[in-house]
Amino acid sequence: MAPKAREVQVKLMRGLLDLVVLQFLKAQPMHGYQIIASLRKQFGVYFGPSTIYPMLAMMEESGYIKSHWDLENDRPRKVYSITEQGSDMLGCTEESLSLIYRRLAIGTGKVSFGGGNNLTVNGLINNKKSINGHLDETKRLGC
After folding, report:
1. In sequence order, what DSSP letters do the residues of 66-85 get, joined into one string?
2. Which of 17, 22, 84, 142 is deepest in the core (most CB within 10 A)?
């Protein structure tokens, strides 16, 4: 990966770290070390315990996650899982990120659909009602 691309990826990860953790916990409950290892494996970035555990405590205080102690293994571990409030936050975030991406793509004049296929802004004008409908739906959901 090019140095600039890596820099952008790390910057985005820092800003979205709590949301990435919510996504992990949506898939399965995890303890702190599992979260740290998953971040490193899936994104190639390292966030240590001094970053992850205070963030988990803040997320628990905010009601986005809950924890319990797993005493079944050799070593007791605090296992975190997403709450309904956390799932709602994640859903709203996905909608918001999608909207941001579309607006950035519109600003460049092209929206990529993968495989090199691009739709020009002129083509998007015909889809304005669809985009506005999506924004109305996002507002209706309370995002």
Report:
1. EEEEE-SSSS-EEEEEE-HH
2. 22
> How many distinct structural domains can be found in the chain?
2
Q: Are 69 and 76 in contact (CB under 8 A)?
A: yes
Per residue of the chain (143 residues), give pLDDT as tens.
688 888 888 888 899 999 999 999 999 999 999 999 999 999 989 999 999 999 999 999 999 999 999 999 889 999 999 999 999 999 998 888 888 888 888 877 665 554 444 444 444 444 444 444 555 555 566 66
Q: Which of 51, 67, 82 lies at the terminal end of a domain, its last residue?
A: 82
Count other C-beta atoms under 10 Å from residue 35's C-beta: 21
Query: Are 24 and 38 within 8 A, CB to CB?
Result: yes
| CATH assignment of the domain containing 63 | 1.10.10.10
Give the global pTM: 0.73
User: Domain span at residue 38?
Assistant: 3-82
Q: What are 112's two structure tokens?
A: 């990529």
